[in-house]
Amino acid sequence: MKVSVILPAAGLGTRMGREKSGVSRKQFMLLEGAPILIHTIRKFLRSALVSEIVVALRQEDIDWVRGLIHQEHPTRPVRLVQGGESRQESVENALAALSLETDLVAVHDAVRPFIEPDLIDRVIHEAAQTGAAIIGIVPVDTVKRVHKNKIRATLPREHLVLAQTPQVFRFDLLKRAFEMAKQDGFLGTDEASLVERLEQVEVSVVQGTDRNIKITKPTDMDLARLFLAEELAAS
After folding, report:
1. What phi and psi values does residue 189 have, to the nearest 5 degrees?
2. What is the 8-class DSSP label of residue 70?
3. pLDDT tens digits along 119-136
């Protein structure tokens, strides 16, 4: 089984804020001397199920990131492709670079460096069985549906999940989902939202963890440093 991992890393990270973080692109911020992107790549290299990693980047970052990856001495191919102006375009470009022999594609946020390798394996196994699977967690807070600033309903938490990544799909299924989205001009917030529109397969949810944080704002870096210190102490 050939499993390709796509890491869209071409974003500008506008929510991080250059004035507070020093850089505007969160995937390149440093944790213990290494960019967040490199920490994320390391996690997927630890999974025996992963065949290759494809990173979608802005053109001006490709040579620099290639040098960083070379220093990691990866045990499997890590390829770099040019990303797009949106996450969806970046994933689409990476899909076009995959071999037709690919069985499953896992898409993961480049700024989720604390994904656990056993969770990677679990969601891959689930997708191998069902065709489509994502990581998700049940919200701990009460969720309200609002209109402007007025509450319209309280949503039962047992029917809700907060979607995380990786999100894993059969290669042919994901390609069809992207082709349909392009034809319809549909822009999704994650890959599952594109696959759901096909109505050909139900997307399974594998229980995730609240440690699988997405680093999107400066305050997330404090938690990231804590999690990394815990990982290093346990290794």
Report:
1. -90, -15
2. H
3. 999 999 999 999 999 999
Residues facing residue 55 across a β-bridge: 7, 80
* Arithmetic mean of pLDDT over the chain: 93
> Which residue shows structure tokens 């400066």?
218
Q: Token pair for residue 26? A: 């969160």
Distance CA 12, CA 7 (A): 14
**Domain count of the fold of the chain:** 1
Instruction: Name the pLDDT band for 235 (thresholds 50, 70, 90).
Output: confident
In degrees, rounded to 5, the angle at the alpha carbon of residue 54 between the alpha carbons of residues 211 and 207 is 30
Provide CB contacts within 8 A for 65, sequence distance 6+.
9, 37, 55, 57, 80
Short-list 18, 163, 90, CA closest to 28? 18
Question: Greatest CA span in the chain, whole angstroms?
Answer: 54
Provide the pLDDT for residue 11: 77
Tokens 């996450």 correspond to what residue? 87
pLDDT in tens, 9-29: 997 654 454 443 334 578 999
The amino acid that residue 212 corresponds to is N
Domain of residue 219, CATH code: 3.90.550.10
Domain boundaries, position 194: 3-234
